[in-house]
Amino acid sequence: MSFTVAIDGPAAAGKGTISKAVAAHFGFAHLDTGLLYRAVGAGVLAGGDPVAVAQALDPSDLESDALRSAEVAEAASRVATNAAVRDALTAFQRGFAARKGGAVLDGRDIGTVICPAAQVKLFVTASAACRAERRFKELQAKGSDTTLEDVLADVLARDARDASRSVAPLAAAADAVLIDTSELSIAQAVAQAIAVIENVQKSLQD
Questions:
Q1: What is the mean pLDDT of residues 80-101?
Q2: Residue of 89, 37, 80, 79 lying closest to 62 (CA atoms)
Q3: How far apart are CA 71 and CA 96, in angstroms?
Q4: What is the DSSP letter of 167?
Q5: Long-range contacts of the stretch 196-202 (C-beta < 8 A, 24+)
Q6: Which residue range forms the structural domain that includes residue 9?
Q7: How far is 32 from 106, CA to CA, in rounded Å?
Q8: What integer pLDDT is reported at residue 49 of this predicted model?
């Protein structure tokens, strides 16, 4: 029997970290759906057609460290506004979510579009200032030459683009549980997510 956990939220809110920890805790498979769009974005930067790249995507394409660059992230956000690209990637995501043994998918439209019937829906968020500071520290650690002001501007621009796009805009599902990580440690945020999932599992068993 499949059990799907859908985790959505804006960039640098912590949804990826929480998703990986939750998947490890419960023994579920994990898919960072943002990597699908990053892979398409990387393909476009290399000169490919976005729809053709999306249709030909292979799981091995998600393993490159190059997908974590800021340039690829920007390209991913742009191709994500393409309805044909989203259609090409939807089947891949739904197939992953339906696998036996449980699955955790994190992204921006998992609970609203990809898996509206997921047993658990979480929306992980944090203030823009907090998310920018986290991203800035990550970039600094990688030796990136940027400023906190520039990172905040990028975060705000991406939020606006993700929330206003005509196809699958970033939004919390009506029945999603909100986890605001602005003032939480990683351990606290993960504990909240695990508690929500355990409560749902218990209710399904009763």
A1: 90
A2: 37
A3: 27
A4: S
A5: 196/120, 196/122, 197/5, 197/22, 197/26, 197/120, 200/119, 200/120, 201/3
A6: 4-200
A7: 5
A8: 97
What type of residue is 137? Answer: K
The number of beta carbons lying within 10 Å of the beta carbon of residue 139 is 17
**Residues pairing with 83 in the sheet:** none
Let me know: does 26 contact 38? Beta carbons within 8 Å: no
206 within a domain of the structure (yes/no): no
- Tokens representing 119 are 């047993």
- If you average pLDDT over residues 152-179, what whole number do you get? 90
CATH of the domain at 42: 3.40.50.300
Summary mean pLDDT of the chain: 93
pLDDT digits (tens, 9 = 90+) for 60-89: 888 888 898 889 988 998 898 898 998 999
Cα separation of 106 and 11, whole Å? 11
Per the structure, how many domains does the chain have? 1
Distances (CA, A) of 109 to 84, 121, 181, 192, 205: 15, 11, 19, 21, 28
